[in-house]
Amino acid sequence: MYSDHFGNIITSIGRISFDFGELSPWIRSGALGGKISPKASVELVDGSRVLIGKTYSDASHGPHRIAIVGSNGLLEIAAWRSKAGMDPALQPGARLRMVSPA
User: Fold this and answer.
1) Is it the case that residue 82 has pLDDT exceeding 80?
2) pLDDT per position as a tens digit, 50-68
3) Phi, psi (degrees; rounded to nearest 5) at 40
């Protein structure tokens, strides 16, 4: 992971289709490719989960963090009116995973 100049976290989990339909792993991230459940979320190292949305403004309605597909096709995590990169669970090198509801 790294933080862009807006404070959003850009992950290295792989390229994701813009409709969140499929994940294509890259750079030996350890991710498994394939279909993504429409109700999937992103689990952070501290066990918290980030919901998947379509735009940055989707973070304004809930726990104020959102996972989206950025313009480069990579998974980004953003925080509403703050910098996601300030979150201890979102530091460079931290692991995350996409999980489907049970």
Assistant:
1) no
2) 888 888 888 877 668 888 8
3) -65, 160
Put simply, whether the predicted model's pTM sits higher than 0.70 gets the answer yes
The 3-class SS string of the chain reads CEECCCCCEEEEEEEECCCCCEEECCCCCCCCCEECCCCCEEECCCCCEEEECCCHHHHHHCCCEEEEECCCCEEEEEECCECHHHCHHHCCCCCCEEECCC
Residue 58 CA: distances (Å) to CA of 27, 30, 35, 80 = 29, 28, 22, 9
For residues 26 and 12, the answer to whether their CB atoms sit within 8 Å is yes
Task: Note the CATH architecture for domain 2-99.
Answer: Beta Barrel (2.40)
Q: For 19-55, how does the pLDDT look when each residue is reduced to its tens digit (9 = 90+)?
A: 777 888 776 666 677 888 778 888 988 898 988 888 8
Listed by start position, the domains of the chain span 2-99
